[in-house]
Amino acid sequence: MTNPNGRFGIHGGQYIPETLMNAVIELEEAYNFYKNDPDFNRELTTLFNEYAGRPSRLYFAEKMTKDLGGARIYLKREDLNHTGAHKINNVLGQALLAKKMGKTRLIAETGAGQHGVATATAAALMGMECVVFMGEEDTVRQALNVYRMRLLGADVIPVTTGTATLKDAVSEAMREWTSRIADTHYCLGSVMGPHPFPTIVRDFQAVISREIKEQLLEKEGKLPDAVIACVGGGSNAIGSFYHFIEDKDVRLIGCEAAGRGVDTFETAATIATGKLGIFHGMKSYFCQNSDGQIAPVYSISAGLDYPGIGPEHAFLHDSGRAEYVPVTDDEAVEAFEYLARTEGIIPAIESAHAVSHAMKIAPTMGKDRIIVITISGRGDKDCAAIARYRGEDIHE
Amino acid sequence: MSKIRKAFENGKAFIPFITCGDPDLETTAAVVRAAVAAGADLVELGIPFSDPTAEGPVIQGANLRALTGGVTTDKIFDLVRDLRRDVTVPLVFMTYANVVFSYGADRFIRTCAEIGIDGLILPDLPFEEKEEFLPTCHAYGVDLISLIAPTSRDRIARIAQAAEGFLYVVSSLGVTGVRSEIKTDLASIVKVVRENTDIPCAIGFGISTPEQAKKMAAVSDGAIVGSAIIRILEKYGREAPPYMGEYVRSMKDAVREVE
After folding, report:
1. B3-253 maps to which CATH number?
2. A36 in contact with B at a CB cutoff of 8 Å?
3. Which residues in chain B have Cβ-Cβ distances shorter than 8 Å to A180?
4. Which residues of chain B have a CB within 8 Å of the CB of A171?
5. How large is the average pLDDT for residues B151-180?
6. Among A40, A60, A293, B48, which one is most buried in terms of CB atoms within 10 A?
7. How far apart are the C-alpha atoms of A15 and A109, rounded to whole Å?
8. Does A2 score more than 60 pLDDT?
9. Domain residue ranges of chain B, discontinuous segments joined by +
10. Domain containing residue A185
11. Global ipTM
12. What is the rounded distance in angstroms from the CA atom of residue B28 to the CA atom of residue B44?
């Protein structure tokens, strides 16, 4: 998929300051060595299984299937992982890699706080220092996760620049990395940024689709007809898609956060409303104005509130191999409530975007068809915000 | 030959960086003229970007003020057309790759050449990605300025050999901003540069005082100052031009003495 310059079609690349170039080159060299190192892989597998609780369940959502009256629906339960989201897969991989490289300090950006919590967790486990950058607005929306990170020993730095959300947290983490490289690894949380990050993060998240394939073959004896996941930067989606890319009959559907709608300015749906650009180290699609200024995006979901999309998704979009659809706040909140009531599972509001699209297409598909929805994280963190959205003021 | 070399013919060069449109374009025009009258050898004109990842808080603030004030790429082109009626020192744009890319690289760089912009500095375009714009820059005769950082090590020779215009040597790790002390062994970096190219090299990032500028000019061909300049604009706003003139004169005087 990746060519030597870290390109996915025309997307990707390494558009970063010269100060960081040797750091990403060293990271790539270390990764290329350790990804084939049996000891590294053994250690990582042990962490995945014993610490994170893998493999995660592939759960047949029987009530939802009956209720929607179409395709059989399976939920890939990444919400059951330790720390409550898929983010831990990538973080354990990168933290282990950083440790092998002799780094003693992890820095990270976070939107909803799930990646920050995962990074703080891995740092605590491996005895590393940890600093997490989080948009000030997100520290308010996701106050519980801020406390969790601090409890785990991380410093959480609220970012007040720009829109004070995820993109600004990424910018600030990049700035911090340029000022301190020797002992510090930037543990990027999604399949974005400069090469080799989109490849490294994808490889660590690809465990999701590898497991889906094995588990579904065991349960149903065949491949799914569609795999659906939410997309911000796109790490749980690429993880869910990766081992199905060559299986051309499997539809791959990424659900973007449309916010208040793709015809409004309050949206974060990059494929639907963005155009080709260069930002945060990569060429890809970005929400931006006619002068190339990055747009202030919006979504109810802090984790999808990002103006770009990972370069491999941009390529899968260009080639037509994957479809990207917008899902609004309203639809996501309805799906959040629906899954809670129907299956007794409270998904992250991010994941609820994927649930919503499945609710639209499942009834149109035959009963012999199969949909897999990746539930990328659990929704405890979102309860207060969703209550507010519904006009109920609760305090944590 | 590159017109930029002219900037290095009056002793060691002093290069101010000014964000266009902070606080408005009329002030930018007046400040550039004041700086040039006071001895600035080359002016870096910043086209603001919403998310300037290589900048510290001071220049981030300037970007924000300029964008809030409604500055656009086309308005900055008009500013340069106006400046070129009397300003003859080399002028370069400093901006981010997306500003050029989204305007259309060909259209952007062709316009640069037409209005008298001599070079382009893009801090998020490293050696590995320069092909994105280099062929277009060559087609229109605009220099694409390369940067070298304290972490460049084995990359210095390769970057220097391919460099054009002048080489921008980043003095310190981190983002732009005033620093009390610059600890990087810049003399060793410049030595490798000199072994590989005869184009001039100037040092930037962290320089604010005449003493620092003098030290930097002693090991290179000039000093670049951004954040300290922006602070004058931040402090005096539309009244900044005379203060800018005074500051630039003190800095140029400091580097002029250096052999």
Report:
1. 3.20.20.70
2. no
3. 173-174
4. 51, 53
5. 95
6. B48
7. 18
8. no
9. 3-253
10. 8-48+87-201
11. 0.97
12. 12
Asked whether residue A343 carries a pLDDT value surpassing 70, the answer given is: yes
Same domain membership, residue A326 and residue A367: yes
Which single residue is written with the structure tokens 């802090």? Answer: A302
Q: Confirm whether A2 is domain-assigned.
A: no
Number of helices and strands in chain A (H, E): 16, 14
Distance (Å, rounded) from C-alpha B105 to C-alpha A225? Answer: 42
| Residue A1, pLDDT score | 45
pLDDT digits (tens, 9 = 90+) for B12-67: 999 999 999 999 999 999 999 999 999 999 999 999 999 999 999 999 999 999 99
Q: CB of B54 within 8 Å of any CB in chain A?
A: yes
Domain count, chain A: 2
Q: Which residue in chain A has the smallest CA separation from B60?
A: A161
Q: Which of A159, A178, A201 is the last residue of a domain?
A: A201
Predicted confidence at residue B181, as pLDDT, reads 87
Same domain (yes/no): A97, A226: no
Cβ contact B102–A290 (<8 Å):
yes
- A20 reaches B (C-beta below 8 A): yes
Q: What is the pLDDT, as a whole number, of residue A101?
A: 98
Chain A's closest residue to B155, CA to CA, is A22
Are residue A24 and residue A77 in the same domain, yes or no? no
Co-location of A136 and A219 in the same domain? no
For the segment B125-149, the average pLDDT, to the nearest whole number, is 98
